[in-house]
Specification:
The chain is built from 4 helices and 2 strands. The protein has 133 residues and is mostly helical. A two-stranded antiparallel ribbon has the order 1-2. The longest helix is centred in the first third of the chain and has 41 residues. The protein is rod-shaped and about 85 Å long.
């Protein structure tokens, strides 16, 4: 019968194979964790980023007001921007402004132009006391 030598080479081979399996397991686990974190981040952003006035249509799509900004901004447009009904109270306007600004603020990845329009909408509605046009 042939005798297999269990010299240093066999021991080194087993050690390297064990290290490879361990590293592969760690890398696969880290990749899965990164993928789960990325998916979770997008899910949270999608849940938080859904404005109050948005309407869900089929297949999970969201529909928004289709149109540009008017110049000068009208009270009707200001109510649309803040997602409010005509004649909203002062506190409702402030709360809607805060909510929309949290989503669109430039420091959180929003547009400086859109945040300017959100502020303009609040100013128009509060400047006249938030009463009907």
């Amino acid at each position: 019968s042939a005798r297999v030598s269990s010299g240093p080479w066999l021991s080194l081979s087993c050690t390297l194979q064990s290290s490879f399996v361990t590293m592969t397991t760690i890398l696969l686990g880290a990749g899965a964790l990164a993928a789960a974190a990325t998916i979770g981040r997008f899910a949270i952003r999608a849940a938080r980023g859904m404005p109050k006035g948005a309407v869900r249509s089929g297949a999970g799509r969201t529909e928004f007001y289709q149109g540009g900004f008017e110049d000068p901004m009208t009270r009707k447009e200001a109510y649309l921007i803040l997602g409010l009904k005509d004649g909203a109270a002062k506190e409702e306007i402030k709360e809607a402004h805060r909510r929309v600004m949290m989503i669109n603020h430039p420091d959180t990845g929003g547009s400086a132009y859109v945040s300017t329009k959100v502020n303009e909408a609040k100013d128009i509605l509060l400047g006249r006391g938030g009463t009907r046009a």
